[in-house]
Amino acid sequence: MLCFENPAGCILLHPTFVQVIWARGERQDEHVMELMNQLLEVGKQHHLDRLLVDQEIMQSCSIEVEVWFKYDWLTRARQQFDFGAAAILSGRSLLVRLATTGFLRHLLGWTGTFQIRVFSAGEQQQAIEWLSQPSPRA
Questions:
Q1: pTM beyond 0.90
Q2: Considering the domain boundaries, does residue 136 fall inside one?
């Protein structure tokens, strides 16, 4: 079910997880931030703790958005609710993959049961199967 859509992408609600699909092409920072803030609301409203992010066709974000994501959004995400598991479908763009590696390094300091796993582009079914496990392990 489509929960939210803007020029940056869309948020889909599935029975056991939330999915973010990034739009093709360049995106404005405010649209990326709006989509990510809506993601927090959808997760909280529906009590979902699992996330699937499709970065396959995503282009890189601005440095401002990367900093905001690491130091503002992730902090609020941890305070508002605990994502138990996240599956990321890797982007085709080298810059997107490097940015993803950077935020994964940032997450290394998190404590708790949060699990994250990166899948290659085109492995959506494997990512969904992993998210569907009772206790996914990276």
A1: no
A2: no
Q: How many domains does the chain have?
A: 1
- 20 in Cβ contact with 53 (< 8 Å): yes
In the prediction, which pLDDT does 128 show?
A: 92
Q: Taking the C-alpha atoms of 12, 59, 55 and 81 in order, what is their torsion angle to the nearest 10 degrees?
A: -60
CATH number, domain containing residue 91: 3.30.750.24
Instruction: Please state, in angstroms and rounded to a whole number, the distance separating the CA atoms of residues 137 and 134.
Output: 10
% helix, strand, coil for the chain, step of 5: 40, 25, 35
Q: In angstroms, what CA-CA distances link 74 with 48, 55, 57, 71, 122?
A: 16, 18, 22, 6, 26
Distance separating alpha carbons of residues 91 and 100, to the nearest angstrom: 9
Residues 6 or more apart in contact with residue 124 via CB below 8 angstroms: 52, 54, 89
Encode pLDDT of 99-135 as tens digits: 666 656 555 555 555 677 777 778 899 989 998 888 7
